[in-house]
Write a structure and sequence with these properties.
Oligomer: heterodimer
Strand order of the largest sheet of chain A: 1-4-5-8
Strand order of the largest sheet of chain B: 2-3-7-6
Radius of gyration of chain B: 23 Å
Number of helices of chain B: 15
Radius of gyration of chain A: 23 Å
Order of helices and strands of chain A: HHHHHHEEEEEEEEHEEHHHHHHHHHHH
Largest sheet of chain B: 4 strands, antiparallel
Largest sheet of chain A: 4 strands, mixed
Helix content of chain B: 40-55%
Shape of chain A: globular
Distance between the termini of chain A: 19 Å
Distance between the termini of chain B: 18 Å
Order of helices and strands of chain B: HHHHEEEEEEEHEEHHHHHHHHHH
Structural class of chain A: alpha+beta
Shape of chain B: globular
Amino acid sequence: MSPADRSLVAAEALEQALGDPLDDHLAGSFRASVCADQDGRFPQQLCTAALEWGLAEHLLPTQLGGQLQSLETCLALSRVLSRRDLTAAIAFGASMLASIPVWLRGNAPQREAVGQALREGGFLAFALSERDHGADIAASEVTAHRNAAGDWCIDGAKWLINNAGHAVGVTVAARTGTGLRGLTLFLLLDTDADTQRWTRLQKIKTHGVRGSALGGISLSGQPAGSGSIVGKLGEGMEILLKTLEITRVLVAGFALGALDTCLRVAVSFSHSRRLYGQPILELEPVVRRLVDAYADVLIGETLAVAACRAAHIRPDQLPLMSACVKYLVPQLSNDSIEALSVVLGARSYLAEGLWHGIFEKMRRDCAVTSLFDGSAPVNLSSILGQLPSLARARDKRTVGVLPAALFARLPTELPWIAEQNLDLGTDFDAVHAGIDAARSVIEHEVVTEHSRELLTLLERFTIETVLLDKEIEKNTADTDWQRSGAAHDLAARYCHLHAAGACALKWLSWRMESSDSFISSGAWLVLCLRRLAVRLGLETVAFDGVERAAMARLEQAYDRHQMFSDLDFQLSVSAIEK
Amino acid sequence: MTSLDELLAIGRVVAGRDPTVAVIANSPLAAAMPVWLAGTAAQQSSVATAILDGQHVALGLTEVDHGADLLATEVTGLRTANGFVLHGTKWLINNVRLARYVCLLVREPARDGVRSLTLLLLDMDRLPASSYEYLPRIRTHGIRGADIAGIRFHGAVVPETACIGKPGRGLELTAQSLLVTRTLVPGLSIGGLDTALRCTVDFLQTRALYGSQATDIPLVQDELAATFLDLSVAAVVANCCVQTLQTLPGLAAVASAVAKYLVPHLATARMRTLSTTLGARYYLCDGHWSGIFEKLLRDVRLFALFDGSEPVVLSALAAQASCLTQPTDPRRADELFNGNRAGPGALGIQPFDIAADDDPVTGGLAEVCCHLERHSAGYADLHAAVGLLRARGADLIERARIPVDPRSALGQQLGESYAQVFAAVCLSRSWINSALGDEDPSWLAAGLVTLLRPGSRMPRPTSQTLFAELTRQCSDRVVFLGCFAERREVHDVAR
């Protein structure tokens, strides 16, 4: 095993504890995952197994004696869970979403109480959305007012809330005033059983993650003490936006886990399936789809890991990175899963059979990652709002430089997230600047067989950025355009350019240290940049030594039972399979 | 049943309510297609009687180890003095557990190569129960109400007379049967997309977001307009392809593959993007309109997959693309676009050639481009779209000259290109010949671009006019006419 990647230690331990997902007897098996989903049943056994291993400690910050220290560790843990069952993964994700506001701004008694609830294996819910106002938080109708005794009373219903069906605690966003400072977060815990603090609404049946305890809560004037306010009165919007910046990055973990499994079953099928006298793995269109999905994993991982680290050491970059990650990684994953369904053919349409029909479940489940906690349109709007600043910074050459730790191969010990440094907008895109940085390095220093193509690709991205920045400038005053499809498309394109910068920075950092010739030769970067360029319509699809090397690399990961990743991550495999 | 385009329209209406029902209801035609194309009078009569009596038919082609690779068929029909003795298992067969009649594709061990397959008509009432068993019903992603299972034969005997068409011609007859069936699949995709669009519009029209009605938001209008455009384009292409079977049978093999690739692909892709516009509701089983969107999303995915998946039909197109290099007369395709429909009695299904010799539809590309160029003064969009069509057409002809393995990446790209260009020419020629030919060509320009460069964003002014038309049709009609239907068209299947 390579020098300890500390962020993976916990995740690898959880992975071994949960066992081989192809071992039908295990709670962490695909079979258990599909069965529970079919019945609309919450996968409690898998969650219990994870809790028994010690997952709760990873939801609690070190100040409380827990092990929540690094977001990157959380990302790795989420991939281990998601690759088996997204329903379980997002249940813990929802608990995290509800507890982060408390870690950021809660007082000591609140933290103790939440810590205890989680340690006891309880789930929490973050009650934000309402039936008539989804992402439109400002239009919230759940209100809180003070009664004669000075207690806060909360009225109204929250709907489409994950974990609502079994939550022991709820973080509720309620209107206490008008405007942006009119929202306040309240923490309600079901401590003693005699009065239920809230009423649970009926379970909501969904397309995917069918076993989720998704529902709603109804509050009818129940008094909540002033000690139940998280942070201060009127700080709700600020706290939740900062919380979402953090949790949005972790959603990438869910999408990457799902994609890993879908790619794995597609590779497995491609090995055994013969058509027209040969294994389908001999067909270039099949290899193309597998390689494209693999490239998407690598790109997604690059973005997500960097964003995790940014939360700790470059929070000024987080608003942009988080929105890009939240938009692009689920998009890449969902698009790839659709593409892989063509490889599987009819089997993609079956809810049983090959690996118990896990592909069919993952496809429905993974779709939720583009939808919740900041849907694609919401994140694209956020990016759009930041683009003028980013363009100006590029124009004025005031784009700062990032610390090496952000894209380094091995993570360093990072200080916990300093909430006061979290901002709500990014002024310059230091990640995107990786495109120029890579060009410069390749032009002056690096000579590999891929240098010329890398320069061509990087040049394309540079030109595309110039065009995009011009388009932004042209339309600054046009509010109609800002809300149009064309504007959203532009923001989506920007995410790809940002991703190109991220891949460039990662490669610059890794190429010196990596013993993997795929990386040091530059083939890795060619693969990722080509993929992004094709998605942008800047390049036509190529198939040469780079794709063949990528295929070999992904086959090797498959044969060695490793996660599809640049990280050295060993998966659990039962003796029979070996 | 009188005409294929009427069938297409009916399929659309039924699928717009429930694609599962459409698939099940379709089986008397689709599953029994070999009988309609090549059966004896006696066979046709028996099957027809059974169907009119409410009984089911199943088509037994696929096996667990071979999807579309029919030559690898392992179910055998050994010819003996008593008839055919059947051994082996068919898998993933719709309606097989309910069927009175099964059209079964078998390999005759005594035969070789492309003449080794024979289609047999099984009367399940006559087969002893001990000679076969059903495999359990299979759970699927969509059309969950359909009964999809398998059947295993061990020594079942069917008489010599069970042979459909000539023995040893099973491969060809299957291909000819699928050719017809595939041409009708677009109706199902369009029906599903139609309802999904209506559902979305209906929800958003009453949804307040950020202080105004959701349908006032430009992004929402753009997305709905794009869906409406794709739906409209799909309807035109589907109709042209069906018409080809009836008026230009030599080109049926191309039209069938174009229809089967393009429309389901477009519909599935559009439903995904439309789901983002509908928002969280799409994900709910009990969402708007009883959660129909969520169901349609799963159901519609079937149509790109069954009876000829995308790789299979793209290969079929690539394999006959050389027909593009043969001299042809575009005039022979004029009737296709005249808007004249074949009268009653001209059903137009027959055993079509499984590859075209020449392509008079695409052969008209150059003159279409010239015509549109002449009318594009002042319409920059159309000018650009015509340029794109010309370029793509030229590229297609170049590629068609190079021999290529249909299953390779180049082959798949050739097939895709052929489908897109063929469809674009259909759209153009229809438009030119219709009353719309004198109107503002912005919608045509957008339609061409969406075919040749899927995922493109149309100019905002075009989006606004399309959105207005969509809204108008939403309130006026039960089924969308689309933006390319002539205003004074009398066809009104819905009412």
